[in-house]
Design goal:
The chain is mainly α. The protein has 27 helices and two strands.
Length: about 575
């Protein structure tokens, strides 16, 4: 057997052995050492001097000194601390009250919380199990179709590996030699767009067939409004914002209102006014931050660039008329339209500010806002170049501890469990890198990489055909394998060919990330299904869970097609932020 075919034998063996249940990392190292010993074998030298042992040491040291991998344990710790801190129960309740009048409100709430919690956690198994415990039984008791309930949880739970901060993105960045920051920016829009497609599918199915998601009974949609709010509305105004502002101006009548712990204090009025103004403050700060970054920050950065620099000894060129930088006129038009729509929406919202709406806002502020602020800070400091990905991960891990301690849900036992699981996951990823590096090196030495490249080039494919071929192979590999094996073993085979077909590795990588959503949704492996089955009632079968997941696989394919047709969905943000 020739050496290139030995390389292909390695590739076939690794798939077979992994499917037999052997540990991936040690299988990679074992096959790498075995075939590498043959590749470097020299009968004139003692077997102990075989260079495969030197290669093993070099690859291990290379994985240990890879700076990109430092952020993995910190992001994983952030996810496990929040998962062990049980911070999602109150969030689910408050979001469900917010969408209580929407068709399939429990399914919509589950998908939204899965998306949001996946961003903060990034751990598919943890999100699916947690949402299965919290949302599965309520949906089944409400009469929801099992396929709808299971599909929403399994599909929503996988979004955490796509939307940053995600461990999968960091692993791909280390394998492909790409910027983690640019990959984070590139996955923002596709991740939320895929979540939006899921949401559209759920709402469309529920509206076309209301029997799959019956309306909730009155007691499950009633907002628990305190009696003092109703009394305040009677004394001042049915509009709670107007009533609270009036009470701040003339608090004498408000002071006579009884609350649970005594009289209504002026400080309680101030806190409720602040809670009522949260939607306005969030909208204004978002628009203000957008204006600052586009109009002020970028022009200030442009003026810091030295002008008139000429090559030494070159004649002085006429600079011509000075050009002023700044956003295009279309930005001001779109910004004005967005501000006008936001202003009209806020005006309509505050005009109908009832006690129920105020109570829902307060529940959202107490349950969603802390986690939202932490997530925005973690992503913002990365995307705006304030910190590196590793420093941002440290901020996220520290913030997760603070949130769990503030909620008083994290004790010593749960902290130990979070740290132990973080060490276990990190060790797995690092050993995978060591085994993958050794396996890839031996595969290339044997000529397997060159043989694959020659075969692909002999097909005389167009860039679109190569894109379809590579993504189809990864899609098929997603059935028996998990994303870790695909990213670490098979993605490096395609990476050297991207330059030949003039394909951006960031665009191709994000397509792989979306494609790998199917790895968690495609039987027979479909780990999301097994995670959910472990916490579901006995009457829920695996076949029902698989049936519920199938439509989301088609949505993943639709998202990939749209990403290829409009590559700006992926590439616009990293190009705008970093050039």
């Amino acid at each position: 057997m020739t050496e290139p075919f030995l390389g292909l034998t390695m590739l076939a063996l690794i798939v077979v052995v992994i499917m037999m249940g052997f540990p991936t990392a040690f299988t990679l190292m074992g096959l790498g050492m075995l075939f590498g010993f043959y590749a470097f074998y020299n009968p004139a030298e003692p077997w102990i001097d075989n260079r495969v042992f030197d290669l093993m040491v070099q690859r291990t040291y290379g994985a240990m000194t890879n700076d990109v991998l430092i952020s993995i344990p910190l992001f994983v710790l952030m996810g496990y601390v929040m998962e062990r801190g049980a911070l999602v129960d109150k969030m689910f309740y408050s979001v469900q009250l917010s969408f209580r009048r929407v068709p399939a409100s429990l399914a919509v709430t589950t998908l939204i919380v899965c998306t949001f919690w996946g961003i903060a956690s990034g751990l598919v198994g943890a999100v699916v199990v947690l949402m299965g415990v919290i949302a599965m039984n309520p949906m089944l008791r409400a009469g929801y179709d099992v396929r709808l309930a299971s599909g929403v949880i399994t599909a929503g739970g996988t979004l955490g590996i796509l939307i940053p901060p995600s461990v999968m993105i960091i692993v791909y960045a280390a394998v492909a030699g790409q910027s983690v920051v640019k990959l984070y920016a590139a996955t923002m829009f596709p991740g939320f767009f895929l979540s939006l497609l899921y949401l559209a599918y759920v709402l469309g199915w529920a509206m076309l067939n209301p029997k799959i998601a019956p309306s909730l009974p009155e007691e499950q949609t009633r907002v628990p409004v305190p009696s003092w709010m109703r009394r305040l509305a009677e004394v001042y105004s049915p509009n709670m914002l107007a009533g609270l502002l009036a009470a701040l101006v003339s608090p004498s009548r408000a002071a006579a209102i009884e609350v649970g712990e005594g009289r209504l204090t002026y400080w309680k009025l101030v806190k409720n006014v602040a809670a009522a103004l949260v939607p306005f403050l969030l909208t204004a700060s978002t628009l203000g931050l957008l204006w600052w970054y586009v109009v002020i920050h970028q022009q200030a950065a442009a003026t810091e660039t030295p002008e008139g620099l000429e090559e030494l000894g070159a004649p002085v060129a006429d600079a011509g008329p000075a050009t002023t930088g700044g956003p295009a006129a279309s930005f001001y038009v779109w910004f004005g339209l967005a501000a006008a729509v936001a202003a009209l929406s806020l005006l309509r919202y505050y005009r109908n500010m009832t006690a129920e709406r105020l109570q829902v806002v307060k529940l959202l502020v107490s349950s969603v806002m802390p986690l939202a602020i932490l997530t925005v800070v973690v992503l913002g400091v990365i995307l705006f170049g304030i910190t590196t990905a590793t420093e941002s991960a440290a901020v996220g891990a520290a913030g997760a501890f603070l949130l769990a301690l503030q909620a008083r849900t994290l004790d010593w036992q749960r902290t130990k469990e979070a740290v132990f699981l973080t060490a276990k996951t990190t060790a797995m990823v690092c050993w995978l890198f060591v085994g993958s590096a050794l396996f890839s090196a031996v595969f290339a030495i044997l000529g397997g990489q060159a043989l694959v490249e020659q075969w692909v080039l002999a097909l005389d494919l167009t860039p679109m055909q190569f894109m379809i071929l590579s993504q189809a192979i990864i899609f098929i590999l997603g059935w028996p394998l998990e994303w870790t094996e695909i990213i670490i073993i098979f993605v490096p085979i395609f990476l050297p060919m991207l330059h030949h077909f003039d394909i951006d590795p960031i665009l191709w990588g994000v397509l792989v990330f979306v494609n790998l959503q199917a790895a968690f949704l495609s039987p027979p492996v479909a780990m999301s299904a097994y995670y959910l089955k472990g916490v579901s009632p006995p009457q829920v079968t695996l076949s029902q869970i698989f049936a519920g997941m199938m439509p989301y696989m088609l949505i993943v394919i639709l998202c990939m097609i749209m990403m290829y047709i409009w590559p700006g969905m992926t590439l616009w943000l990293p190009e705008y932020l970093y050039g």
